[in-house]
Amino acid sequence: MTWADLGLPDAPEPSGNETPAPKPPREPKPPKPPREPKPPRDPKPPKPPKPPREPRPASGGRPPRDPDDTGSRLPVVLGVVAGVLLIAVVVTLGIALTRPSSDAGPVGPPDPGPTTAPTTQPTASPTSSPTGIGAPVAVQFGGTGFTLVDKDDQTVFTHQWRDKADVAVAALTQAFGAAPTQRVEAGDGSSYPDYTVYQWDGFLLYDMVDGTGGAQRATFTQPSYATFSRNTVGKIEMTAERGLKIGSTIAAVRAATPDREIPRGNVGSIRFVFDIGRSTAGPPVQYSMVTDTDGTSVTAVLYYFAAGS
Questions:
Q1: Which residues contact 186 (CB under 8 A, 6 or more apart)?
Q2: Which residue, of 21, 26, 199, 306, is most buried by count of CB atoms within 10 Å of its CB?
Q3: C-alpha angle 185-186-189 in degrees, rounded to nearest 5
Q4: Could you tell me if 182 and 211 are in contact, meaning their C-beta atoms sit under 8 angstroms apart?
Q5: Which helix (H) or strand (E) holds 300?
Q6: Which tens digits make up the pLDDT trace of 3-57?
Q7: What is residue 105's DSSP assignment?
Q8: Residue 308: its pLDDT value, please?
């Protein structure tokens, strides 16, 4: 089809300088109507909480243990610990018993350790005598104490008056072949102490109780003393000074020149005191010898502090 067919003049030939006719503007689209807001949704009701699951039963159908039930578990725990310790001890003992001994060789003397001064030992035990000394056969009395001697007049044991009596008691017990009875003789409560009395048949040893009556053993003038009323105790002879014995006559006593005669409570009883000036607190402590008589003969011999008697 041509422009002529349409009854229109031919279209002019376009030149290179001509601009095309502008296109008519598009009509704007009408605006869309606003959407109506949707109504708010009703809130969903909260879901009901799920019920707690029941705990699974333990093996064997037992209910689970209460976690707070520590008392029931404590014996089990202690039993396990004790079993472990027992196994450890058994293993240790097995290793120790099967371990071979250490290197063989000469065993040296034990380590003496740090050098220390030896402790002071009490008077030699009466059960052992020096070499060459025999068994005691007599007790010899003197101003400073008494001595156990053998048949050759060798000293077996010596007790001085300030010595404690325990060792002397042991020596005399062995010599006499019998243990003494024991009692306490009360003092005056002020200046004269109590005495523990060790008594054999015919011999008494008095030992002061330190601190009683205000007296102290280290300074008291009569810490211990002795008396005998038989010439032999067991198989041991009692030997006083000046050759006086139990049964010696008053004439023999006076012939030994005592320092003093003191009438006693019993009719005819006289006490004779020898060597009054010898009684002293020492050192060493020394006593006088005293003989008691019944008016005809000696009934007892005493060694004690007699100054001022």
A1: 194
A2: 306
A3: 160
A4: no
A5: strand 298-304
A6: 455 454 454 444 444 444 455 556 666 666 667 666 666 666 666 666 666 555 5
A7: -
A8: 63
